[in-house]
Write a structure and sequence with these properties.
Elements lengths: L1 E7 L5 H10 L3 E4 H7 L6 H10 L12 H8 L3 H29 L4 E5 L3 H4 L7 E6 L2 H12 L21 E6 L5 H17 L1
């Protein structure tokens, strides 16, 4: 089984890339969705988060109030690290179970996991290949403005994703710029053929 990590900055087009890879027959998992699932009420991570941050981070629906939790960790690196230490191991465990189940069902499968913080957490080391999606910061900014009504001062905080070698892993990069969706889809197909045959 070929394990592929897909990563990149916010608004670079990771979701579109993931959808195309699904069309190409890959088994795909969105780490953000998994992160939401592991903090549902009743899950161990939920209980740990509430124990550390207090009941004020629980909303009226008995689920985590992401706005309140985000406000706590936004400018507090220590608290952000604490939250990550609770959530990330659960996400990795869920991903490992998912990949093991797929390998039992189809040893020739290609699995792709999409995670924005793959480089930062070091979790990319679990994969045979790593694909980085990037685009010009100006395009990221425009997408963020359209998506969340953000203002231009955010531009300096949009960082570029480097193309460095990651612990010897085969690192691929796809550049989601001003191309049409059909052009980008064709480019992805060519990239995927290269990854699969290498």
């Amino acid at each position: 089984m070929l394990k592929v990590g897909l990563t990149g900055g916010i608004a670079t087009g990771k979701s579109f890339v993931l959808s195309v890879l699904r069309e190409l027959g890959c088994e795909v998992m969105d780490a953000d969705q998994t992160a939401r699932e592991v903090v549902e009420p009743g899950q161990p991570a939920f209980e740990e988060i509430v124990a550390h941050f207090g009941r004020e981070v629980v909303g009226e629906d008995s689920k985590l109030n992401r706005g309140k939790l985000g406000a706590i960790i936004f400018n507090n690196p220590a608290e952000r690290e604490k939250l990550n230490a609770i959530v990330h191991p659960r996400v990795f465990e869920a991903q490992a179970r998912w990949m093991a189940e797929i390998e039992l069902r189809n040893p020739q499968a290609i699995v792709v996991i999409d995670a924005a913080l793959m480089i930062e957490t070091g979790s990319y080391r679990r994969f045979d290949k790593v694909v980085v999606v990037h685009c010009e910061p100006e395009i990221q900014l425009q997408r963020l403005i359209e998506r969340k009504s953000l203002n231009s001062p955010i531009l300096p905080s949009i960082r570029r994703w480097g193309l460095t070698t990651l612990d010897g892993k085969s690192n691929r990069c796809t550049h989601n710029s001003a191309k049409s969706r059909s052009e980008f889809k064709l480019e992805l197909g060519n990239l995927w053929s290269t990854i699969y045959s290498s």
